[in-house]
Design a protein that fits this description.
The protein is mainly α. The protein is built from eleven helices and four strands. The relative contact order is 0.11. The protein binds calcium ion (CA) (3 copies).
Length: about 190
């Protein structure tokens, strides 16, 4: 039978995502992850309140159609984006991730919460405190100085600042989670 509608999915299931698919379907035979299963899936256990808020925000960013479940296509789309997407696509996704309350602006507390939670989850050591880092970001790219980063300020500001782009893509790095998925970290 004509199966052309499946081509997109097949295209996406390259060698690499085949591994992701196996893991996804093993742990989640229904093909839909709830938030609870999502945390178990990514090995996010015993989270502090702020890390839990970050995980929730990450879940919402994965759940692109907002139905409360993450399905396999959403999972592949998000991971492909994070791993191989264009800078602009990634930043758009990260903007959504950071805007915890969905107000279409990122305020100081939201950015601080995200940076702290990401650091806690990644277990990375950093020279600059999360507080200082967030202040630096706002100093640089909150152009109208209203204490919130609009979508335009975020996109323009980060893309036009080499240092910030590098710092953010490093602290936004999901490679820890990806390594975990690929079984490189038990
Ligand atoms: Ca969904
Ligand atoms: Ca917000
Ligand atoms: Ca602003």
């Amino acid at each position: 039978m004509g199966n052309t509608s499946g081509a997109t999915l097949e295209d996406m299931i390259t060698c690499e995502s085949h591994q992701w698919y196996r893991k996804f379907m093993t742990e989640c035979p229904s093909g839909l992850l709830t938030f609870y299963e999502f945390k178990r899936f990514f090995g996010l256990k015993n989270l502090s309140e702020s890390s839990d808020a970050y995980a929730m925000s990450m879940f919402s960013a994965f759940d692109m159609n907002g139905d409360g479940y993450m399905d396999f296509m959403e999972y592949v789309a998000a991971l492909s984006l994070v791993l191989k997407g264009e800078v602009q696509q990634k930043l758009r996704w990260y903007f959504k991730l950071y805007d915890v309350d969905g107000s279409r602006c990122i305020n100081h507390d939201e950015l601080l919460l995200m940076i702290r939670s990401i650091r806690a989850i990644n277990g990375a050591h950093n020279d600059m405190s999360a507080e200082d880092f967030v202040n630096m970001v706002f100093d640089k790219i909150d152009i109208n100085g209203d204490g919130e980063l609009s979508y335009e300020e975020f996109m323009e500001g980060i893309q036009n600042d080499e240092t910030l782009l590098r710092a953010l893509t490093q602290s936004l790095d999901l490679s820890y989670i990806v390594q975990r998925l690929q079984g490189e970290i038990p």
